[in-house]
Amino acid sequence: MGSFCSLTLGIGILAALTGLTRAGHAQTITTVDVPGARSTMPSAINAFGEIVGSYLDAQSTSHGFVRSRFGAITTFDAPSIGEPSTGYGTDVTGVNLAGQVIGSVRGVSSNALIERAFVRTPFGNITEFDGAPGAIRTAAYAINPEGGIAGIYFDASFVGHGYVRFAHGAVTTYDVPGFIVAVRQIRPNGEVIGVNVGTDGVLQGFTRELNGVLTSFSAPGVDLTTSGVFCGHCGGTFPTAANAHGRTVGYYGGAAQIIHGFLRKPDGAWSIVDAPGALRSMPEAINLEGDIAGEYTDATPLGHGFIQPRNGAPESFDVPGGSNLRVTGIGVDREVIGYYWDSSGNIHGFIRTPRTECEQRL
């Protein structure tokens, strides 16, 4: 049995690099804390298990970090764009298969808040950029394997616009009906998936193809009398994540003030993704294989985590000692990342790793 499990474990490590493993229902929780940080908040994970995120120091200034699959943590800051200021700094939002990290850096200059986007190479070189000339705030939210970046920028009139920055540095901008709320994914083919508030004031999803064609979408059965989608008074459909194959997840307001999770496939087919017994289900991440992770609330006021395998039953989980949690990503081997609050109100990162059958027997 021992040699069999050793062989299986070795195969599992190899398979993890190619996203082929299938885990059991048991789990392990690993806490992720940047040394000396007051709060640690992982934001994304790539197919090689690299985790990126932000952390706050004692002065509440934000910094970036990269955690290797083996646990080594590297911290970094984007070049300063203004005077050091409490509450500002480097915020990390994504990472691609090549290890390129994106985010934004904020600072105060001439008594005004300035925000620029950045991309960091695996070797630590950082390039800052703006969504358009004269932009006062630029945020990067998604990066594809080729290095294409999608995000939002605000002009001098505080009007938001979408942009796509190609790997060679060229930037194209676009607008959506109403106003843009968030960008969730840029696929390898350049298609952008995001969220906007339509001219009717209702939240909806959108896709923008590389040729500029925009398509809006809303969940079937959405009930606009149900608020609490994205904000206290908001209603409609709120996509939260998408994978390279165009499978999109999010949540919407349904009947009887229930918030349902959803999965939208590239062919336009929809399905509900709800955690058992949930009053509010919020899928937050989807991996390349279509496994979904998120959080939910039930009759208790605290949030719980859940994972919905592409071909399996949903599983719920909590972080021991955590009073609440937020899910931010899921790896190819169904490792779920996010952060949680402890009983003292401090924030810690976590990795929820499914255990193999051999690990459960050892």
Description:
The chain has helices spanning 2-18, 357-361, and strands at 27-32, 39-45, 51-56, 62-67, 73-76, 89-95, 101-109, 112-120, 126-129, 137-143, 149-154, 160-165, 171-174, 179-186, 192-197, 203-208, 214-217, 237-242, 248-253, 259-264, 270-272, 280-286, 292-297, 303-308, 315-317, 324-330, 336-341, 347-354. It has a domain at 28-175. The strands form seven sheets. A four-stranded antiparallel β-sheet has the order 1-28-27-26, with no helix packed on it. Strands 2-3-4-5 form a four-stranded antiparallel β-sheet, with no helix packed on it. A four-stranded antiparallel β-sheet has the order 6-7-8-9, with no helix packed on it. The chain contains two helices and 28 strands. The protein is globular. With 362 residues, it is mainly beta. The longest helix has 17 residues, at 2-18. The model is unreliable at 1-24 and 357-362 (pLDDT under 50).
